[in-house]
């Protein structure tokens, strides 16, 4: 129960006790007053009747006596009159009971005694008889009942007004406390957003100041930890001249790119004219030119997705280009090489544009690894140099390359329409052996062949149909949720998170299935978090409200996401194992990365862990769990397919 309800309930209880006391005192006093009045009137009436009946009793005129008794009972508060006299064979009794409006429970609660008086009828030396009178309680009960109703009405009205005023007063007094509570909740969910406004309530001033100091200190710690991670990352993976990545950076992003279900191409760029600039103008001019090239390459993006670039040697650069059409890629290459030629040798008086930049490119194919990709890209660059071409694209070699994007699109559409998609789940284990969740993976069946997500997800991203795959997963979950007892993680596509309408529909879908939503962990990629942070935050808030969790997949590919991480505050982040197992990366950098995640209470999960030695190292660095071949994916119960 909230403090506000406790206060209102306490005041209501006190008012109720106070009202009961007032009611009891007023009714008791009125009852006593009515009894005293009734006792006096009864005695007087009995005395008067004993005198008025003397002549009738002496003459034994019983008819006149009855008439007198009836007249007396009709006009007063008499319930019964009884005359006993000499010469009267049977007592003369006159009864006149009244009807009261007071209910029986009220009469039993406020009982009135039955008053009875008796007087002798004087007849000289000896009494002639006796007159007995019993009072009627009808009128006192009616008066008490009327008083009780009026008193109860005013007490109820008074209690209601008092409670309303108290509620308004308590709410106003508790406003600073509510503001403090909301601020702490916001701090927990969204991170530091500035100090909370101070209050004039003396008891809360100290608490407000302490919360402001604590939140500012935590924010400063996270900012300092983030700055340290970025500084260490630059020391380990940044080229000092071009401000691009170095070979270590290229190794990491290549492994992560090849492990992710993405398309694109690897390109090696050579600019031989840089050596001529060094020979002619010195290293300072050459370094300035390299720095200008780095600034240009770091600003290039394809469909709002930045390219990733690294400097390999004095004249060579490596670039990972996002997925694009052949025409779009050729246009990008032409624009890029022309711009680089202008940077290294801008001569407005020369009518002919000299070509100083050459490029060799290899398109990503399933199964290609880092060494093979670099080798093919280097061979393509040599082919471009030897044949005096501005760029050369290495031909595809695998049988997958024979299938066009249109054919892949048909494979996806047919598998979904024929319900030939099936699912496996891979557990994510914490260091203590507990299971965090099982991540759900979709696979497509084409005849006897099974396609992994890494084969068809780049095609879905190219055609923008990732949300269609997500809908298929949600529909499947809706049908088979009762057969799945484990906690599942869903890795949502970029296309769904890019659409406000799709995110709203997913939030509504989760709200309609609270029991299922409480067992789901929603994962988004780092790219989705950076480019569509508002949608991701809205989704995570709904997931948290329903008891689920939110996580970031493929984290730390772009360390600019660390400040965003402090605002989003996910429950866990997943980092590829290639980030942890390289010998050329300082352990301090990896440990600082884990500490930055722990600052916001996020677990660090390392993916694609392939051996026990890798698991032991990532645990020693500070990660909280792992996912990979040590805990392979398993097919779900055939009964749910």
Protein architecture, described:
The structure is a single chain. This protein has 23 helices and 21 strands. By secondary structure, it is an alpha/beta fold. The strands form 4 sheets. Strands 12-13-15-16-17-18-19-20 form an 8-stranded mixed barrel, surrounded by 4 helices. The mean pLDDT is 82. Residues 262-398 form the GGDEF domain. Keywords: Membrane, Transmembrane, Transmembrane helix. The chain crosses the membrane at residues 151-170. InterPro entries: Cyclic-di-GMP_PDE-like (IPR050706), EAL_dom (IPR001633), EAL_sf (IPR035919), GGDEF_dom (IPR000160), HAMP_dom (IPR003660), LapD_MoxY_N (IPR032244), LapD_MoxY_peri_C (IPR042461), Nucleotide_cyclase (IPR029787).
List the defining traits of the structure above.
eight-stranded mixed β-barrel; about 650 residues; alpha/beta
Low-confidence stretches: none
Using only C-alpha atoms, the radius of gyration works out to 46 Å
Query: β content, as a range?
Result: 15-25%
Number of helices: 23
Give the quaternary arrangement of the chains.
single chain
Helix content: 40-55%
Rounded to the nearest angstrom, the distance between the terminal CA atoms is 45 Å
The spatial strand order of the largest sheet comes to 12-13-15-16-17-18-19-20
Characterize the main sheet: 8 strands, mixed, barrel
Sum up the overall morphology in one term: rod-shaped
Number of strands: 21
Estimate the mean pLDDT confidence: 82
By secondary-structure content and strand pairing, the structural class works out as: alpha/beta
């Amino acid at each position: 129960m909230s403090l506000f309800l406790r206060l209102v309930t306490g005041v209501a209880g006190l008012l109720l006790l106070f009202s009961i006391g007032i009611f009891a005192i007023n009714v008791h006093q009125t009852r006593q007053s009515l009894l005293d009045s009734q006792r006096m009137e009864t005695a007087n009436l009995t005395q008067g009747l004993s005198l008025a009946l003397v002549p009738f009793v002496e003459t034994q005129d019983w008819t006149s006596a009855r008439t007198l008794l009836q007249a007396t009972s009709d006009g007063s508060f008499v319930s019964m009159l009884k005359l006993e006299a000499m010469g009267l064979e049977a007592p003369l009794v006159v009864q006149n009971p009244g009807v009261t409006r007071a209910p029986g429970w009220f009469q039993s609660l406020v009982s009135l005694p039955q008053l009875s008086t008796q007087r002798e009828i004087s007849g000289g030396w000896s009494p002639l008889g006796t007159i007995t009178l019993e009072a009627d309680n009808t009128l006192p009960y009616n008066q008490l009942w009327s008083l009780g109703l009026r008193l109860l009405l005013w007490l109820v009205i008074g209690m209601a007004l008092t409670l309303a005023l108290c509620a308004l007063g308590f709410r106003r007094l508790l406003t600073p406390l509510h503001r403090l509570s909301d601020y702490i909740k916001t701090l927990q969910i969204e991170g530091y957003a500035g100090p909370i406004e101070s209050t004039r309530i003396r008891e809360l001033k100290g608490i407000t100041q302490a919360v402001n100091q604590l939140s500012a200190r935590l924010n400063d710690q996270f900012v300092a930890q983030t700055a340290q991670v970025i500084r260490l990352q630059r020391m380990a993976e940044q080229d000092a001249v071009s401000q691009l990545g170095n070979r270590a950076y290229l190794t990491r992003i290549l492994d992560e790119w090849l492990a992710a279900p993405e398309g694109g191409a690897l390109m090696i760029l050579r600019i031989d004219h840089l050596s001529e600039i060094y020979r002619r103008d010195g290293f300072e001019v050459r370094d300035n030119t390299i720095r200008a090239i780095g600034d240009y390459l770091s600003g290039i993006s394809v469909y709002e997705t930045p390219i990733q670039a690294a400097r390999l040697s004095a004249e060579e650069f490596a670039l990972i280009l996002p997925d694009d059409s052949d025409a779009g890629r050729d246009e990008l290459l032409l624009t890029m090489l022309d711009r680089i030629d202008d940077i290294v040798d801008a001569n407005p008086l020369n009518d002919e544009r000299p070509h100083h930049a050459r490029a060799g490119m290899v398109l990503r194919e399933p199964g290609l690894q880092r060494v093979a990709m670099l080798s093919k890209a280097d061979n393509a660059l040599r082919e471009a140099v030897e044949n005096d071409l501005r760029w050369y694209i290495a031909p595809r070699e695998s049988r997958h390359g024979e299938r066009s994007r249109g054919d892949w699109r048909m494979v996806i559409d047919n598998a979904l329409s024929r319900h030939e998609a099936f699912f496996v789940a891979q557990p994510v284990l914490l260091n203590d052996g507990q299971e965090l969740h099982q991540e759900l993976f979709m696979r497509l069946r084409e005849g006897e062949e099974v396609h992994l997500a890494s084969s068809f997800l780049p095609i879905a991203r190219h055609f923008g149909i990732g949300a269609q795959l997500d809908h298929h997963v949600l529909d499947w979950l809706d049908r088979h949720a009762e057969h799945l007892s484990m906690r599942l993680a869903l890795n949502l596509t970029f296309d769904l998170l890019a659409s406000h309408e799709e995110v709203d529909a997913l939030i509504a879908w989760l709200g309609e299935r609270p029991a299922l939503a409480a067992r789901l962990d929603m994962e988004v990629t780092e790219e989705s978090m950076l480019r569509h942070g508002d949608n991701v935050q809205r989704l995570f808030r709904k997931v948290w409200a329903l008891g689920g969790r939110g996580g970031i997949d493929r984290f730390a590919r772009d360390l600019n996401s660390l400040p965003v991480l402090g605002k989003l505050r996910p429950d866990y982040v997943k980092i590829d194992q290639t980030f942890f197992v390289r010998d050329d990366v300082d352990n301090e950098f990896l440990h600082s990365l884990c500490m930055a995640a722990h600052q916001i209470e996020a677990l660090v999960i390392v993916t694609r862990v392939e051996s026990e030695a890798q698991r032991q190292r990532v645990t020693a660095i500070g990660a909280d769990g792992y996912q990979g071949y040590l805990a392979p994916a398993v097919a779900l119960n055939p009964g749910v397919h």
